[in-house]
Design the sequence.
């Protein structure tokens, strides 16, 4: 089963390597990883999607905790939370099918962010299902390239993962 | 108060002084020239080894005996990479070390400069933590953190890599040992609710066993362990790392469990209804095939490292904390159960399955077990044994009676050949009043044989008992049993005359190839100022028994050997 972990780390040199190295070294399957600053100076938030059984995930969390630069690890999988990923797609778009593409993009509340004579770039955010769905629909026109940020997540309601 | 300015190299020595470091193990080189220059007229002792790997192993032996971090200096590039095996060894066995390596000057980092190696990258998976200090202002804090992290919680090696120019830069020096690290807060006190559950489990158990490991020794839990075992009448098995936590000749001691453990220890774990696991990590060499391990038992696991709990074996009562503190709390609430019947069962196993002592049945051959037993008998108490890795290590664990904690120094997790001799040097420096015996093999000894120079020059008074069977005995044993006696490259033919090698370095060398001369040589070596090497020419056919084949249940034991 896929789990989403929020890992709060000190923004020290090598911190990202320590975390990602841990996954390969201990044989954990990392699906994706997204890193960014938090409100607290010198503290970053990593959102890691990892595949494994409950026992494996328990080990992942404990091993992450052992890293000195890791301040906190929260498993958001079974908590009500908002999870999003941003995807950019470069789609083959001739004059004849632009409006069809446009329609799909609007349905998914995406945006056309760049237009060239024979292609356009589409920006779309959402959860896994939504991103996969639009990808499937746009495949029909020809997807030339895809870039994804990896998933990020916050708990719903007033609960927070870390105080700033 | 005005902050005192100091150079990087001076900060390091000042920090070592504040940490009470008595000795540095090291080897100089280009990038640590400024540091060694500072050392030139400093009061602190420095042991110059002949290979950096020996510096780590010696510091490791020192740390295992004293309980305090061992300190190592090495240069960049090959100096640093030569430390790697020793660091991995210390990491696997949770030994506190602080390693300071020189790095190429800041401006050259990343350019493949002469003697450049990314040692923080290389040692990332084998250190508890490591640092590359690019800013002199950070150095005092990093030094304090390194000692704090290495010596607290589950101990381990911490490496600090310092570019050559940083040693010469100046900054204010304030040394604050009260480290507050947001992501590092070890748990020492056990959870009261879990301790109560453990108390109840012990009261209700009919066939309890204490399974203890290195954590008992690191936390100083021997007295508490003994009290628990004796009050509740619970038998004890100790892993290789735990030997000495309870006296090897104590009445409740069943021996070591696992691959070369005693039959009784393995039967006891298999038949137990409760295992009190203290400071152990359920290594595969102990558990054998996991699905069959202790299927009848409820397991209490006490360990300072939460990640060890539930890693290999499912735990019923997890207790995260310092083993000593948890056991002491457990003792305050202890309600002993009745184990009379269980102890009778154990006694009958002990009578039925004694340890094979490798009797030569009156022949003239010298058996390795005899040598170890004589070393144990003749050295008496107040002795530290440092072993290398292989058959002699297992025979030492089985036959040398270890009566105290911190008296058996061995490479457990990594199984590093070449560890024993330098570790014995470190052990002797840590405990000058104790007798130190290095039990090694002809394979292992040749992996750090150059340290004879270090030992002789520094008059390190140790006895080197070389169990010489002319081959890589443990590998050969597996070829013998599992590979149809196809002895692929396990002969050590071509080895030197070890007595003459010892003499060439200026050490005393003795040789024994029968029981009478062996006893005489041991007696002589133990009374003479060392280093003394005894080359015991032993029976090359001798194998270590009992034995559990890898990944088999631990009660499926190959029992052979002479009694």
Sequence:
């Amino acid at each position: 089963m896929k789990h989403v972990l929020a890992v709060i780390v000190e923004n020290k040199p090598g911190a990202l390597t320590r975390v990602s190295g841990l996954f390969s070294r201990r044989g954990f399957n990392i699906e994706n990883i997204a890193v960014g600053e938090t409100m607290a100076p010198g503290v970053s938030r990593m959102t890691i999607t990892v595949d494994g059984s409950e026992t494996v995930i328990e080990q992942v969390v404990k091993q992450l905790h052992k890293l000195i630069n890791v301040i906190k690890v929260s498993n958001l999988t079974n908590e009500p939370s908002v999870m999003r990923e941003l995807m950019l797609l470069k789609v083959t778009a001739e004059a004849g099918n632009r409006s069809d593409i446009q329609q799909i993009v609007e349905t998914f509340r995406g945006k056309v962010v760049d237009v060239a004579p024979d292609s356009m770039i589409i920006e779309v955010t959402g959860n896994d299902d939504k991103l996969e769905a639009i990808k499937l629909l746009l495949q029909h026109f020809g997807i030339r390239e895809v870039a994804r940020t990896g998933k990020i997540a916050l708990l719903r309601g007033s609960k927070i993962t870390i105080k700033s | 108060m005005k902050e005192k300015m100091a150079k990087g190299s001076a900060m390091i020595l000042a920090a070592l002084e504040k940490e009470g470091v008595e000795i540095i193990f090291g080897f100089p080189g280009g990038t640590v020239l400024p540091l060694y220059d500072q050392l030139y007229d400093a009061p602190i002792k420095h042991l110059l080894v002949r290979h950096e790997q020996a510096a780590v192993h010696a510091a490791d032996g020192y740390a295992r005996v004293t309980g305090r971090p061992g300190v190592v200096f090495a240069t960049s590039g090959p100096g640093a990479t030569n430390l790697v095996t020793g660091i991995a060894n210390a990491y696997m066995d949770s030994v506190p070390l602080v390693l300071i390596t020189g790095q190429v000057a800041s401006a050259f980092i990343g350019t493949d400069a002469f003697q450049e190696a990314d040692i923080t990258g290389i040692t990332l998976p084998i250190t508890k933590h490591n640092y590359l200090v690019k800013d002199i202002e950070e150095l005092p804090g990093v030094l304090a953190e390194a000692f704090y992290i290495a010596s607290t919680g589950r101990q381990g090696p911490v490496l600090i890599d310092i570019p050559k120019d940083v040693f010469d830069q100046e900054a204010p020096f304030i040394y604050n040992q009260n480290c507050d690290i947001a992501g590092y807060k070890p748990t020492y006190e056990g959870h009261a609710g879990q301790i109560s559950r453990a108390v109840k489990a012990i009261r209700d158990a009919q066939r309890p066993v204490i399974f203890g490991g290195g954590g008992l020794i690191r936390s100083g839990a021997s007295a508490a362990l003994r009290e628990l075992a004796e009050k509740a009448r619970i038998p004890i098995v100790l892993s290789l790392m735990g030997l000495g936590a309870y006296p090897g000749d104590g009445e409740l001691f069943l021996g070591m469990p696992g691959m070369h453990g005693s039959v009784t220890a393995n039967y006891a774990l298999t038949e137990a209804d409760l295992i009190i696991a203290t400071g152990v990590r359920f290594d595969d060499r102990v558990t054998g095939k996991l699905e069959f391990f202790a299927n009848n038992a409820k397991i209490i696991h006490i360990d300072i490292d939460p990640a060890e709990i539930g890693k290999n074996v499912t735990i019923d009562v997890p207790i995260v904390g310092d083993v000593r503190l948890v056991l002491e709390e457990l003792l305050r609430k202890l309600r002993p159960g009745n184990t009379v019947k269980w102890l009778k069962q154990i006694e009958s196993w002990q009578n039925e399955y004694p340890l094979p002592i490798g009797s030569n049945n009156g022949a003239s051959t010298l058996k390795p077990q005899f040598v170890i037993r004589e070393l144990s008998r003749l050295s008496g108490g107040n002795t530290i044994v440092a072993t290398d890795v292989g058959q002699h290590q297992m025979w030492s664990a089985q036959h040398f009676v270890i009566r105290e904690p911190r008296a058996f120094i061995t490479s457990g997790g990594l199984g590093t050949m070449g560890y024993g001799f330098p570790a014995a040097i470190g052990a002797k420096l840590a405990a000058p009043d104790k007798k130190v015996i290095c039990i090694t093999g002809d394979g292992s000894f040749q992996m750090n044989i150059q340290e004879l120079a270090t030992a002789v020059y520094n008059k390190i008074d140790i006895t080197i008992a070389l169990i010489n069977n002319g081959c890589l005995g443990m590998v050969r044993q597996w070829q013998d049993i599992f590979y149809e006696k196809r002895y692929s490259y396990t002969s050590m033919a071509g080895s030197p005359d070890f007595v003459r090698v010892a003499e060439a370095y200026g050490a005393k060398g003795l040789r024994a190839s029968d029981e009478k001369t062996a006893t005489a040589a041991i007696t002589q070596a133990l009374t003479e100022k060392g280093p003394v090497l005894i080359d015991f020419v032993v029976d090359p056919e001798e194998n270590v028994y009992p034995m559990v084949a890898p990944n088999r249940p631990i009660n499926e034991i190959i029992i052979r050997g002479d009694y």
Q: What stands out?
A: The domain at 192-352 of chain B is CATH 3.40.50.1220 (Rossmann fold). The longest strand of chain B covers residues 97-103. The mean pLDDT of chain B is 96.
